[in-house]
Specification:
Elements lengths: L5 E2 L29 H22 L4 H7 L3 H32 L3 E6 L1 H13 L8 E6 L1 E2 L1 H29 L4 H20 L7 H8 L1 H20 L5
Antiparallel strand pairs: 1-4, 2-3
Helix pairs in contact: 1-3, 1-4, 3-5, 3-6, 5-6, 5-7, 5-8, 6-8, 7-8
């Protein structure tokens, strides 16, 4: 007997009051591979804010570091493209993978930014060397059965693992100890970290939904992401 469909309003279970709105024409854009103007705007804003937040935090130009060591414009200029590529490959592809998998299952799916999460990320990035990012999530409407929800959840971290696996040999065996290698290494690191973090079995993270569907797949992905991340950190690709 097939499972009865359940109705979900938010993939990440974040209260949708502030961003779960559907301007005229966006529902038509929910067809497979389609984007609405609203969704594109939310994605661009999220990518921009996250790039700035991580640039200030990682480049040593956050307020805490500047008070001690001064402002370093050369570091800032170097980290802008570095963090942009990291955010683009990690966050953007992660969310798009959720979206396309949901659409594959016949659900309406679009990304919506979480303004408070973006404000917090920017605030922490400018003031401290640490960033906690909750930029938003892919919202979906329609019926979602347990296996569909699990596959939708798995799509995000799996995309990050694939990107990390592609960039891993490029960094270690082709561009190691070069400026291009630093960029590739950072992309590899940020994707492996995002995969591992989202696979943790806590709260609204992807791991909890994957476990409900298939615990074996979850543990394999988690162990693999931890091993991959450990190998990357040992060689310090961001250094």
């Amino acid at each position: 007997m097939s499972q009865e469909r359940k109705i979900f309003t938010s993939f990440h279970d974040i209260p949708p009051r502030e961003y779960m709105y559907f301007p005229k024409g966006t529902l038509d854009a929910g067809k497979p591979g389609k984007f609405s103007r609203t969704e594109i705007t939310h994605l661009l804003i999220s990518i921009g804010v996250l790039t700035l937040a991580f640039t200030f935090a990682l480049s040593g130009n956050n307020l805490i570091a500047v008070v001690s060591n001064g402002f370093k414009i050369d570091k800032l200029l170097f980290y802008i493209p570095l963090t942009f590529l990291g955010i683009l490959t990690a966050f953007f592809f992660h969310e798009l993978s959720h979206k396309f998998m949901a659409q594959k299952h016949g659900l309406w799916a679009e990304f919506r930014m979480f303004p408070q999460g973006l404000y917090l990320a920017l605030f922490l990035g400018v003031l401290t060397p640490f960033v906690f990012a909750a930029p938003g999530a892919v919202m979906f409407r329609g019926g979602s059965r347990t296996y569909e929800t699990g596959q939708i959840a798995m799509a995000g971290p799996l995309a990050n693992i694939i990107i990390a696996l592609i960039t891993f040999p490029l960094y270690f065996y082709v561009f190691y100890d070069t400026q291009i290698g630093t960029i590739i290494g950072f992309i590899c690191f940020i994707n492996a970290f995002l995969a591992m973090f989202n696979l943790l079995p806590f709260g609204p993270l992807d791991g909890t939904k994957i476990i409900r569907w298939n615990a074996t797949i979850w543990i394999i992905l988690l162990i693999f992401s931890i091993i991959l991340l450990t190998q990357i950190i040992r060689n310090n690709p961001v250094g």
